[in-house]
Amino acid sequence: MAAPASDDRPVGFIDSGVGGLTILRAVRRLLPRESTLYAADQAYFPYGDRPEAELRLRTELLSRRLIERDAKLIVVACNAASVGALAHLRATFPATPFVGVVPVIKTLARVTRTGVIGLLCTPSTARSPYIAMLADQFAADQKLIVVECPSLANQLEFGEFSSPVTQALLHRLLQPLVAAGADAVGLGCTHYPLARRAIKRVLGPGVRVYEPSRPVARRVRQLLAEMSALSTQERPRHDFFTTGRPAQLQAVLDKLRWLAGARAEKL
User: Fold this and answer.
1) Which tens digits make up the pLDDT trace of 81-129?
2) What are the extents of the domains in the chain?
3) 185 phi and psi, to 5 degrees?
4) Which residue of 18, 40, 109, 256 has the lowest C-beta tally within 10 Å?
């Protein structure tokens, strides 16, 4: 019997900064034999308040760099970039599969008991027609409270996952959800799961918090299997690049125990 096909080329990841590490972690847990390339566009962080034309330009540049490094699939591990640039990337690089991040509005609408759901977003994601479309399609019968969090990603980008400033910011941002009785809350920016514990403390034990990392990981596995491109290597390689200062990315990598030994390089 012939051995199953194997493709040891890496899976690429794109984000404005460290938020996409939450997606990377889920993919590595589900697919531990896959090598990865992570590109943080920290020179242009944050993406959450940039126009779509700029998001398309930056993510195209990063995608090209990852494809040059032999990426077999690219995950756009950023909500703002997925909303603003995913279609452009698929059209520009038709030979490369792309996986984006979709806000979990459908899941929130399915699990709520109170009929009140919340979504934490960056400003550009919160105001996008895509969010309005998802709300109309999946949550028309629920009360959806979209909370713009213009400075939360900045706190998390610099490793302030549970600092007093971050805690105070979360208390202010989440009070409308608590007051309205929301019982299911989605994290609409890949940075936000870095503060998941702090968010859950503010919301209280009766509120369930959802983010898209595991569904994205399952989609990556599905596509690689369909392509006969799953890796079988015993010792995968994991590389981390930034368009900004490697020391800034390194400081966050060092805070995450599951990334022990990871090293940041200039892209």
Assistant:
1) 999 999 999 999 999 999 999 889 999 999 999 999 999 999 888 888 8
2) 11-101+213-266, 105-210
3) -130, 130
4) 256
